[in-house]
Design a protein that fits this description.
There is one protein chain. The chain is α/β, with parallel strands linked by helices and 510 residues long. It has 16 helices and 13 strands. It has a single domain, classed as Amidase signature (AS) domain (Amidase signature (AS) enzymes), CATH 3.90.1300.10. Strand 9, helix 9 and strand 10 form a beta-alpha-beta unit.
């Protein structure tokens, strides 16, 4: 756990000499339910196992530095769930599922800091809508994860939490900004986690940590009670070790919320059964377009391009028709032309700060403290200089361009009769820690259009001394709005056909 962590884990379980029987590190939503029903474990044992892994591998061992705060009430909550189960069965579909929350999700029982020393100790008055839904479904918040400070860039380094490490290669970052969640779920600190995604931030750490990450259609999941970056581009969603678990979490998170007007698109819309949909067989006969703009040329990109080439063959072997498509712009060009974070950040952040007891109220005050991680200083300075940019001509032009681009992507998919688009989530490998930045990520396509995208494990590079299994590479499926059922089914089909998920060597079973 990072220096400056909010709650210590020492003495939480005392189970180092007598580890729990339940193996949480590769457990799933379904396997926990099955084990509890069979009487081979209890919720208390599941949670104790997760806490022991945090103590062994975040505070010690490889010191992943993924967890900012452990929930000291997790064991008592688990004991209460055991009592409820004995009296009346499972309380919900996520009964006793340990979840690691990115620390920009509000929690009534834990501070929410966006991993910034400027917000240290800030206590929201209640849970974010999605957190409340997870708890009501029986999930147990195991703790809050480090993130790239204020969720504005991609290597998961912060003034409050420091640098999180990648459990597959301790010399590399875990991606970001939801990298604490990614590293923690990969290492078995929780079964599932939550992330936020303004451009790449759910899917980048999923790619870097051999995980599944879903950015849902804009408006499908509420963003109420989440520290904002951009009302246009922000999304909240699950990070998991399997598509089935991501679907189970989406089922709970999704739904209309009066506190987030973006979800008004769900009024009178009946949501599907995402868990059932994920089990459908959809790859045979599917037409999938590989976005060639995101396959960059040069030695730096060869490891990822090789994984994508193999993935094309795997999709073809599953009966899909795979064709090349061209968007006419690289991810970097799309970001430069359309991204609106800088225009929206300051007014949204300051509106959020007014809802909590944070010691600061303005972006100017945050910057004046001089406690920011160096990697976020330039963005926050630009946002502060811009102020409320939502009335500027440049902002209006970008919004109009986003609408046009959205229509263009739909037209491209329709013209070529494509069910899905497909591409590497990152065109180059996740960067070494010393670089302090991550380049050539492709999440902007979903971020601008608001369409759903699912990153799944695509494979590994060749093993090295630093990366005994190789470095994970994630591939991404992209669908039309509210086509999450197809997206999940395609991702699960690919997942089951390829079997790329492997646990990291640095965090073995206790």
């Amino acid at each position: 756990m990072a220096a400056g962590a909010l709650i210590a884990t020492t003495g939480v379980t005392g189970a180092a000499a007598d580890p729990p029987r339940f193996r949480v590190e590769e457990a799933s939503v379904a396997s926990i339910r099955t084990a509890i029903a069979a009487g081979t474990t209890s919720c208390s044992e599941v949670v104790a196992a997760a806490l022991d892994r945090i103590a062994a591998y975040d505070d010690a061992g490889p010191r992943l530095n993924a967890v900012l705060a452990v929930n000291e009430d997790a064991l008592s909550t688990a004991a209460a769930l055991d009592e409820q189960y004995a009296e009346g069965g499972f309380v919900g579909p996520l009964h006793c599922v340990p979840v690691l929350l990115k620390d920009n999700y509000d929690t009534a029982d834990l501070p929410t800091t966006a991993a910034s020393a400027a917000l240290e100790g800030a206590q929201p008055p209640d849970d974010a809508t999605t957190v409340a839904r997870l708890r009501a479904a029986g999930a147990i918040v195991i703790g809050k994860a480090n993130l790239h400070e204020f969720a504005v860039t991609g290597v998961t380094a912060s003034s409050l939490g420091g640098q999180t490490l990648n459990p597959y290669d301790l010399t590399r970052t875990p991606g970001g900004s939801s990298g604490g969640t990614g590293a923690g779920v990969a290492a078995g600190f929780a079964v599932v986690g939550t992330g936020t995604d303004t451009v790449n931030s759910i899917r980048s750490p999923s790619s870097a940590n051999g995980l599944v990450g879903l950015r849902p259609t804009r408006g499908l999941v509420s963003r109420d009670g989440i520290v904002p970056v951009s009302s246009t581009q922000d999304a909240a969603g699950p990070i998991a070790r399997s598509v089935a678990d991501a679907a189970a979490v989406l089922q709970v998170m999704a739904g209309h919320d009066p506190a987030d007007p973006a979800t008004d698109v769900l009024v009178d819309r009946e949501l599907p059964d995402y868990v059932a949909a994920a089990g459908r067989r959809v790859l045979p006969g599917a037409r999938i377009g590989v976005v060639t703009d995101f396959l960059l040329a040069g030695e730096l990109y060869e490891p990822v391009n090789a994984v994508v080439e193999q993935a094309r063959a795997d999709l073809t072997a599953q009966g899909a028709t795979v064709v090349d498509v061209d968007l006419g712009a690289t991810a970097a060009e799309l970001s430069a032309t359309y991204d609106v974070q800088r225009f929206e950040f300051e007014p949204l952040l300051e509106a959020y700060l007014a809802t909590t007891d944070a010691p600061v109220r303005t972006l100017e005050e945050i910057r004046a403290l001089d406690r920011l991680h160096p990697t976020v200083e330039s963005f926050l300075a630009a946002a502060d200089e811009t102020g409320d940019g939502r009335t500027s001509a440049d902002y209006a032009q970008r919004l109009a361009g986003i609408a046009e681009f959205r229509d263009r992507v739909l037209a491209l998919m329709d013209a070529q009769d494509l069910d899905l688009l497909f591409y590497p989530m990152q065109s180059r490998l996740v960067e070494p820690v010393v670089e302090q930045m991550q380049r050539d990520r492709n999440g902007i396509l979903a971020a601008l259009t608001g369409f759903p995208a699912l990153t799944v494990p695509g494979g590994f590079t060749a093993p090295t001394a630093d990366a005994p299994l190789g470095v994970p590479v994630g591939v991404e499926f992209f669908a039309r709005p509210f086509d999450e059922p197809l997206l999940l089914a395609a991702g699960r089909g690919f997942e089951e056909a390829t079997g790329h998920r492997r646990p990291p060597v640095s965090t073995p079973p206790l």
